Amino acid sequence: MENIGAQKSRVLWVDFAKAFGIWLVIVGHMTIPSHLTQFIFAFHMPLFFFISGYLEKNNRSVKDEILHGVKTLLIPYVILYLLFFVYNISIVQHFGTEQYSGGYPLKDLVVKPLVGMFFGIGRSTHSSTMLNVPLWFLVGLFCTKIIHRILFVIVKGNIDYYILGIGVVIIGMFGLKFIKLSIPFSLLPAVEAFPFFAVGNILQEKNRLKTVLKNRLMSIIISIAGFVIIFIGVIYNGKADINYFIYGKDALLFYILGFVGIISTMCISLLYTKQNWLITTFSNGTIIILAFHGLLNGYIFRITSIFGLEQTLLLVFIVSVLNMFIEIIPIKFIQRFIPIIVGGRK
pLDDT tens, 254-300? Predict the structure, then answer.
């Protein structure tokens, strides 16, 4: 998830939107009613691709884009994945390998997880195991950025031709939909998410956000109305999941709801006009939260179960907020001492 880093002038609405988005990621990966899961999945990943497009610089060559993506996305992906690989081996060695079927513990414990890392998709296959599913986003975003850069170079920065290129990518997406293969490097999600990234980049290129909704009350009303529209829309369209290349019953509705969620989030985020260190920390630490929130949720819920607490929506809310606050410590530590894990961002 792209970070603003040490920009002289932070894009404050982006900070708030990323903090809100990563909170939705945490909640969406908990056990909650299906209609809430569908609501969150309708726009939380589109939001991050949109933000990444908005922050994308258009003055890099394809080669520079690849090198930048390797540094800021792929290296963090590999390091974080290998941390979970070591953790997984340690836990399994401690508690035994009975859970591994087929009598091939080495294959299940070592080979398939490593294949899963190189495969770079957010799910396991018959020949690979993805140890940390949310990390697919880093690989998928890398591919999306390369698609954007190649297209941007081809059209020589012409926005009209670029918009036409978005349509070509969408048509290509439907062609890929019929391919019953596990295409590596999260390329399918990258193609599906590209329109969100591209529109974000166009808005940044055209500098259109300066004139968006200055009336606070109107921003709140539009935001609430948008979220209501999403809630109603997913009743028909069902669950969309970019990771699994699923857009629900209707692809057009998937994109409409995604952009409605982005607009609704922006309306609220644009009200955030004074920098707060907490929001900034969450924004800069999205990669860390992305990687560790599932593991931390598991441990927190184990503790709550000892006290006999049922996993209600109230408890989910409390745990999600607690999760984010706990992760402030590793975020600050990693940014100061091991910034390579977050792509050199500080």
Answer: 999 999 999 999 999 988 989 999 999 999 999 999 999 999 999 99
Contact between 293 and 1 under an 8 Å Cβ cutoff? The reply is no
Question: Which token pair is 140?
Answer: 């998928």
- Tokens 């940014």 sit on residue: 335
Q: Give ∠ CA 38-252-46 in degrees, rounded to 5.
A: 50
Residue recorded with tokens 């399994």: 92
User: In angstroms, rounded to a whole number, what is the distance separating the alpha carbons of residues 172 and 9?
Assistant: 38
* Structure tokens, 198: 């591209």
What is the reported pLDDT for 8?
36
3-state helix, strand and coil shares in percent for the chain, rounded to the nearest 5: 75, 0, 25
Torsion sign across C-alpha atoms 210, 41, 185, 187: negative
Residue ranges, the chain, pLDDT below 70 = 1-10, 92-104, 179-182, 205-214, 345-346
Residue 198, C-beta contacts closer than 8 angstroms, at least 6 positions apart: 53, 148, 162, 163, 166, 169
SS3 state at 280? helix
Q: Which two tokens stand for residue 155?
A: 């059209």
Kindly report the number of other CB atoms within 10 A of residue 26's CB atom. Answer: 24
Q: Which residues, other chains included, contact 171 with Cβ-Cβ below 8 Å and sequence gap of 6+? A: none
Determine the pLDDT at residue 215: 75
**CA-atom Rg of the chain in angstroms:** 20
CA distance 299 to 177: 37
pLDDT for position 26? 98
Give the whole-angstrom CA distance, residue 15 versus residue 158: 29
